[in-house]
Design goal:
Blueprint lengths: L24 H16 L4 E3 L9 E4 L11 E19 L9 E14 L5 E7 H14 L10 H13 L2
Antiparallel strand pairs: 1-2, 2-3, 3-4, 4-5
This protein binds zinc ion (ZN).
The site of zinc ion (ZN) has 5 residues, from helix 2.
């Protein structure tokens, strides 16, 4: 396992649409690196492009900090969003030091491929639904700033640029 450097916005690699990934040893190694890097950061989710790998893979574990780890490796995820819209405060390891209020759906039906190459479908709610939407956005080159209205985005970007 290797702890990777996390790219910081506005690195152009964070704005790219990532390519589909094929489960296998390379993707298994990638997932291990993502977990190592995410847990060390420490964070709750990390997408491959955040460490410079432009493939549709992310990992998440939203409850490990509370002592109840629930790790996910999601390859080529597709989300169908359901439920109400809720605004919550999100951090991003690629935008360190700043949190942003982002509107998301409360429920996500996620289809994805697991490390063994099996097709999976799960319904996510709560923090996992929010985190999966955040990480899936990274695979399309979208960060939290891009989910804001134009004035809010300008304010958030200037707050971020003003950080030491
Ligand atoms: Zn992020």
């Amino acid at each position: 396992m290797t702890r990777a450097a996390i790219l910081r916005w506005p690195d152009p690699r964070l704005s790219k649409v990532c390519a589909p990934a094929t489960p296998g040893p390379d993707v298994a190694n990638l997932a291990r690196d993502l977990f190592e890097t995410m847990y060390a950061a420490p964070g709750r989710g990390l997408a491959a492009p955040q460490i410079g790998v432009l493939l549709r893979v992310f990992v998440m574990d939203v409850t490990w900090k509370e002592g109840t780890p629930r790790p996910w490796v999601c390859i080529n995820p597709e989300l169908r969003l359901e439920g109400d819209v809720v605004s919550s405060t999100e951090g991003c390891l690629s935008i360190p030091g700043l949190t942003t209020d982002v509107a998301r759906k409360t429920r996500a039906v996620m289809s994805y491929t697991d490390l063994a190459g099996r097709h999976q479908r799960v319904t996510l709610t709560g923090a996992e639904a929010i985190c999966a939407q955040h990480e899936a956005d990274h695979l399309d080159g979208i960060v939290t700033f891009d989910r804001l209205s134009a004035p809010d985005r300008m304010r958030a970007v200037s707050d971020y640029e003003a950080l030491p």
